[in-house]
Amino acid sequence: MGTTELVNAKDSIEQGILMIHWSGWRNEPEINSCILRSEKSRVNPTNEIGIERRWNSETTINYNPKRTRFRKQHRGRMKGISYRGNHISFGKYALQALEPAWITSRQIEAGRRAMTRNARRGGKIWVRIFPDKPVTLRPAETRMGSGKGSPEYWVAVVKPGRILYEMGGVTENIARRAISLAASKMPIRTQFIIS
Prior knowledge:
Blueprint: E1 4-8, E2 16-23, E3 28-36, E4 50-54, E5 93-97, E6 101-104, H1 105-119, E7 124-127, E8 133-137, E9 150-158, E10 163-168, H2 172-185, E11 190-194
Parallel strand pairs: 2-4
Antiparallel strand pairs: 1-4, 2-3, 5-10, 5-11, 6-9, 7-10, 8-9
């Protein structure tokens, strides 16, 4: 499953271990199950109350901004090329956008998961875009007026030349295969580049 670490807890759980699944990169816990053990166990030989922390390789990343200054934004334009984020900064291989588009948080996560599953163990992946633009939608069959719709999902504004994903610590053929899977999840034309 992942690495396991035991952390002392000052909770009032009597002689037990509370298993918490830590989801996302912000360490937000999700309680999966509570296992009460009165006898000494391999995980907790001192029989003290603790929290068993497990990191799963298939955890999802939370792509919603923590807070924004305004709930709704104008649609904006996507003219021109990307002058920022258009060079490989962390890894050796990368996926570069060739067209302008809004890429949703679901598409970003689908691409990241495809790369992670294909590379399996070994290698590191960097996601270079973040969806920070809210997209609003009106309910179906609504009459004109009554203001702007409520925010439904988040998108990243991508211009041509923007680096979407980076990868390092693997051979070129593994990186090419993993990045091509991520490219198939994207709604735009992309290219594989090497630093």
